[in-house]
Amino acid sequence: MLGQIVQDLPESTSMRLIQILDEVAHHTRELKDSVMSMRAQPVGSVFQRMPRLVREVAAKTHKKVRLETHGETTEVDRSIIERLGDPLTHIIRNSVDHGVEAPAARLAAGKPEEGVIRLSAEHRGGRIVIEIKDDGAGINSDRVLKIAREKGLVGPDAQLTEDEINNLIMMPGFSTAETISDISGRGVGMDVVRSNIQDLGGRITLKSVRGQGMTIQLALPLTLAVMDGMVIKVGTQTYVMPLSAIVECLRPSRGEISALIGTHGMLQLRGEFVPIVMLSDLLGIGSSSVNNTERVVIITDTGEGSRIGLVVDELLGHQQVVIKSIEESYGAVPGIAAATILGNGRVAFILDVEKLADLAVHTPVTNNATMKAAQPALN
């Protein structure tokens, strides 16, 4: 708030105040980091519950399974730790029950009799990444697709890639369990795990190789309370985009934007094509017609190695913001993760980049309207 006021003062007065404010901001950040470090706990407190779980499920399923853990000292905020136990428990239970084969089947496939599940954690790009990897049979994509069609989750003539089929196991109501037991078929599926991870502001990705095993990766924020964000402007509205989701920001020329049927436009970026979309279209608001040459494309990481370029009117700068949940008052809003109060006292929504990418995929394209609107703005 002081920073907002100082900007409106005469330059002769504001220069000294800005220097003092920079010092105050520096010390405040150090204080915040110290407090957050006191709240931080190693993930080992969750990891240490898993060996017993593996032994119990392996005994019930008559399998031989060994759990390896790495990165137990990796620290994360206590609020994350408290809500991490249930998703991890479900994933580990699934790995033993569905992933690792019976000893006889493993020997027949030329594998050691004992299966291995590797549970690891590390800090990566301002997030904590937890990986659960097994050397089991992987996902039987033919069976998954058959069950999905029987349940009406996909059309009978739908053509899906291997990865798309594998990700069907995260759809609500999906289960490959043939009988109900205390391990599987209880109605609590991977869709609940995904919802829990997304509620924490994280994302879950899945990779499977038939006969070699499956890897599930959870990328979570280090804290639920404070976030580094980029304040952006679209039309008359101000939003905050998580800095951890931003790869780069640029103002491309007209020649770098290409038309492609069935897309909103493609940006040629160092030999790679990145789909672009106007953020104003996704959020259903009017874009500013002023300072069109100042519009910026923000390249964002949407998970699973994919990227998308969001066209915004203006970048207002980097800022640390306190996250305020809106779901209790307004419910879930597609593309909006939470809200925050800016220094000028106004409320700004924090964007959910992964959900925006989903909206971009499912937003109908009519005559490349978005690209036509973006090209003159980016020239």
CATH class of the largest domain equals Alpha Beta
Number of discrete helical segments: 14
Please, what is the average pLDDT? Answer: 80
Count the E strands. 18
Report the uncertain regions.
Answer: 366-379
Major β-sheet strand ordering: 10-14-15-13-12-11
Q: What is the CATH homologous superfamily assignment of the largest domain?
A: Histidine kinase-like ATPase, C-terminal domain
The domain tally reads 2
Rounded radius of gyration (Å)? 24 Å
Question: How much of the residues is beta strand, in percent?
Answer: 25-35%
Q: How would you describe the overall organization of this protein?
A:
The chain has 379 residues and is of the alpha+beta class. It is built from 14 helices and 18 strands. It has helices at 2-7, 11-39, 44-47, 50-61, 78-82, 85-99, 103-108, 141-150, 162-166, 190-199, 279-283, 327-330, 353-362, 369-378, and strands at residues 40-42, 65-70, 75-77, 115-124, 127-134, 203-209, 213-221, 226-234, 237-242, 246-250, 257-258, 266-269, 272-278, 296-301, 307-312, 314-322, 336-341, 347-351. A hairpin with a 2-residue loop joins β12 and β13. The longest helix has 29 residues, at 11-39. Residues 366-379 have low confidence and may be disordered.
What descriptive keywords fit this protein?
379 residues; 14 helices; disordered C terminus; Heat Shock Protein 90; five-stranded mixed β-sheet; SH3 type barrels; alpha+beta
